[in-house]
Amino acid sequence: MTLMLLDSASLWYRAYYGMPDTLLAPDGTSVNAIRGYIDMTARLMNVYKPDRLVACLDGDWRPSWRVEIFPGYKANRLEEEGEEEEEPETLTPQIPILLDLLDLFGIPVVGVDDYEADDVMATYAEIERGPIRIVTGDRDLFQMVDDKRDIKVVYLAKGISQHDLVDIKYVSDKYAIPGDRYDLFAMFRGDPSDGLPGVKGIGEKGAAVIANNFANVEEALEAALTAHTSLPPALAKKIIAGADYLKLAPKLVRVARDAPLPKVDLSLPKAPSDLSAIYQFKERYALGASVDRLISALGW
After folding, report:
1. CATH of domain 2-177+259-275
2. Would you call 105 helix, strand, or coil by DSSP?
3. Is 59 a residue whose pLDDT tops 80?
């Protein structure tokens, strides 16, 4: 049976911008992100029928060990004051309410100090049995797809209704590379959203040439230094010029698969004998049918 891993921040940001900001609790608190998150979770559960579920969080969206490797990591997302990633004013108060609601439902919520949610999801995918569905709007997790272990990414870039189910073939078709080399491709191409430059002058086409011909950074560097016939001279020159960055790239770009996860029961929560606390919470925050849909998706 299926383990579903939710990239919670990805879901609540998508919900926040996708749901009307007129959705308010009686006290005036915005609840659009909460309702959208719960609606999306229920819809995905109805599609993929998981028997295990985890809401994954960032313990740190900019882990110290990644910043130590590369100080520019996600530096583009820092506020001018340089303290924290900017968050919409009416989203921030919704997050603790949402986490309280998940707790009421008994849905496990896991974040690990100094690791991102991506690392938490990757570690679960590494150690748990499949099938595994990683729900995210982030391409970084494409590196985890594994047809043999039935690990796929439920990719939300086009929204819930038109989401893509990413497997090896999807990665191969979209980027014209071997589907299990997305991480290598990303090391060379870079990722502006994370402040990762990649190798200067190498875009998707050049990165695809490299990923099609070499299995890792070391092989690509060696090929560049020895004028390998599969590398155009201009591309080889760029690889050599980017050698210092490429020494950092594997640890920087790859998601961690060894985050120290807490011991948590991942099984879908059983129906409580009394739903009154959930219904009171629903009324307090005017969460309407969203809560009912999640109750139904859990089979309560």
Report:
1. 3.40.50.1010
2. helix
3. yes
